[in-house]
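Table S5 (text form). Sequence records supplied for joint modeling of the two-component complex.
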Amino acid sequence: MLGYTITQWLFGILSFLAIMFGLLVVFSRNPVSSVLYLVLTFFCIAGHYLLMNAQFLAIVHVVVYAGAIMVLFLFIIMLMNLNEDSEPQKTWLTKIIAAVAGGMMLFVLVGSLKGSEQLSLSVSGSPQIGLVKNLGQVLFKDFLFPFEIASILLLAALVGAILIGKKEAKS
Amino acid sequence: MISFIIYKFIVCVVVFGLSLGVAAYATLWERKFAAFLQDRVGPDKAGWHGILQPLADGGKMFFKEEIIPNVSNRFLFILGPSLFMMTALMTGSVIPWGADFTMDGKVYSAQITDINIGVLYLFGVVSVGVYGIMIGGWASNNKFALLGAIRASSQMISYEIAMGISVIALVITSGGTLSLREIVGQQDAGVANIVWQPLGFLIFFVCALAETNRAPFDLPECESELVGGYHTEYSSMKLGLFLFAEYINMFISSAIMSSFYFGGFNFPFAAELYSAMGLEAGSFWITLIGFGALFTKIFMFICVFMWVRWTLPRFRYDQLMNLGWKILIPLSLLNLAITVVVEFFRGNLHF
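The corresponding C-alpha cell record, covering 522 residues in total, follows.
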C-alpha cells in the first residue's frame, strides 16, 4: 500500500487522530466535549503504546487516565455546570500572557526534540518486551530505587491531598 | 488464515448472541424469581409460563415513542446508551467458554481471544463503561439524571479499587498470569481458587454487585429519590439498552466470577467422567460438557444476584461510600497480605 507497512499506516492514522483530537480539546467551546476529546486522545496514545509492544503500559494508560482521572475531570465539570454564559470573560492581558507562555512552552519542546535525531535508541524488536513479567523484572530489579522514590512521592501527594481536603471540616 | 478468520467470526457471533439471549431471558427469570420470593405467579400470559415475555418486552420497547429532549446534546444523548451497551458486550471477548477442541487436526479454542493481559483488559473495559452512564446522564440536561450519573460514576470508581486489589491477590494465587485462559487452566487438576481466596471472592462479589449497579447498590437509579436516575429522560429502545446492558453486565460478571474463583469450565472428577464416557482429549463433546458446567455456575451466580436484590434493602449513599472505602479497601489489602504470606509458604513465590 503506497510503499508503507501496516504498522506505518497505523502510526500515521493514530498520530493524525491524536493531533486532531488534541486540537479539538483546545478549540471546542464546551468544557464537557473538551474532556471527551481528551479521552479520545488518550485512546490514540494507548494505540501508540501498543504499536511499540508496550501492552501493559497501553492498558494501564486506559485504566488510569481514561478510566479514572478523566472520569473525575468530567465529574467536576459536570457538577460545576460550566458553559459560555456563566464563565467570566478573560481580559486581553490574560490572553496575551497565556499565548506567550504557551509559545515559550512550544519553543522549549521543539528545541528539546531538535537534538533527538542524534540520540541512539536501542529498539529491540521483541514483542515480549512490554509484557507484565518483563516490566516487573526491570522495575523491581534494575530500577528499584527510582521506583520506590516515585511511590513515596505519590504517597506524599496523597497525604497532602487528604490534608487539604480535611482542613475545612476542622475549623 | 481465511478459515481462522471465519472461525473467529463465528465465535464472535455466538458469544454476541449468547450474551443477548441470556440477558433477555434473565429479565424473565428475574421477574419469575421475584414472584417466587414474594409468593406471586409472575408473568404467565405470553406463551407457556410466560416464555415469550422477553420478546413482548423487546417489541414494546421498539414501538414506544422516542423522545429526545429539545435542550439536550443530541449526539451525546444517543452516544450514552450505545457506549454503555458496547462496553457491556466487549467484556465477553476474553472469557474462555470451554476447553480447546481438535477438528481435522487443527486446534480451535472456544474463546474469542486469549490476550496475555486479559485481566487488565477487563478492568480497562469496565472503567470505560462508566462513560456511557455519565454522558447519558449529563446530556439529558436534567438534574435527576445528572445526580444519578454522578452517583453511578463515583460508586464505580470507588469499588473498582477494592475489586482491583482482590484480583491482584487472585493473580498471585494463580502464579502471576494475567491471561484468563491460564487462570482457568490452573484450576484444572487441582482445587478451585475459592479455596485459597475465600475473602477475595467475597470482596469481588460485593464489588461486582456495585459495578453492575444491582441492588443493594442501585442508588444511581434510586426511584424514591431520583425519579429514574441517569435514565430519567430516556424512552423507547435507548432506555431498553440501558436496562438490558445491566443484565449483560450481570451475565458477564457471573462468568468472570465462575472463571476466576470456581474453575470456569472445569468441574470435579471431569477426567474420570470423560474416560468413563470414552472421550479422548480434544473432542468437541468435552468442550460442550465444559461449557455446560460453566453455564451451570453462571446460572447459580445470576440466581444469587437476584436473591440478593429481592432480600436486601438499598443502602444509604454515605453507607455505600463507607463500605467501599473504609471496609472493603482495607479488607482487600489485608487479603493481599495474607495471600502473599500463604503463597510464600506454599512455595509459589520466587525471589
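Note: Residues 144-170 of chain A form the longest helix (27 residues).
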